[in-house]
Design brief:
By secondary structure, the protein is an alpha+beta fold. The protein is about 20% helix and about 40% strand. The chain has two helices and ten strands; from the N terminus they run αβββββββββαβ. The strands form two sheets. Strands 1, 3, 4, 7 and 10 form a five-stranded mixed beta sheet that branches. A five-stranded antiparallel beta sheet has the order 2-6-5-8-9, with no helix packed on it.
Length: about 160
């Protein structure tokens, strides 16, 4: 039984491609001079930039694409695979759109081709709890809303840039 389970897992895992290791140090994104310093929150987050090409209908990661990553707030240049370090942004109703930064856009070139993709900012969500009665729901909703409207904005996950065949 263990042999069957092991073989099943080995076959399933062999179908997955391992990501190309990021061997370079993370690159600190520059903050554009048009960004007011009071929009920057304490802390940073990392965003991975990876390049893929379609081979035989499958997406295969490759290294070596030159990329410019930019938003209205930050910019960076990297060669894939890479990570950039981006600042977090203050969330405040005094700022336009509560201070949410614009999406990161990665424009990459490789082998004479250009491809682009974007990375998004994590959206804040308000949670409620059922089964706690009206008072419990109100308390949970108010606390969740306070946290969601006071925590900084941060870019999430990574950017996957896909080059067509």
């Amino acid at each position: 039984m263990r042999k069957v389970l092991f073989l099943t897992c080995a076959i399933a895992l062999s179908a997955c491609q391992s990501p190309v290791a990021i061997e370079s140090d993370p690159v600190a994104a520059g903050v554009k001079s048009t960004v007011q310093k009071n929009r920057l929150a304490n802390g940073t987050s990392k965003v991975a930039i990876r390049s893929y090409k379609t081979v035989g209908g499958k997406s295969v990661e490759f290294a070596g694409a030159s990329c410019v990553i930019e938003s209205d707030e930050v910019y960076a240049k990297v060669v894939t695979p890479a990570q950039i370090i981006v600042p977090k942004f203050v969330q405040n109703k005094a700022f336009q759109n509560r201070g949410v930064p614009t999406s990161l856009v990665a424009v990459c070139t490789a082998d004479g081709k250009t491809a682009a993709s974007q990375g998004l900012v994590a959206q804040k969500q308000i949670h409620t709890v059922g089964g706690a009665g009206i008072a419990g729901i109100l308390v949970t909703t108010v606390a969740s809303a306070a946290i969601a409207t006071s925590t900084p904005w941060a870019y999430q996950g990574g950017i996957k840039v896909v080059f067509d065949e």
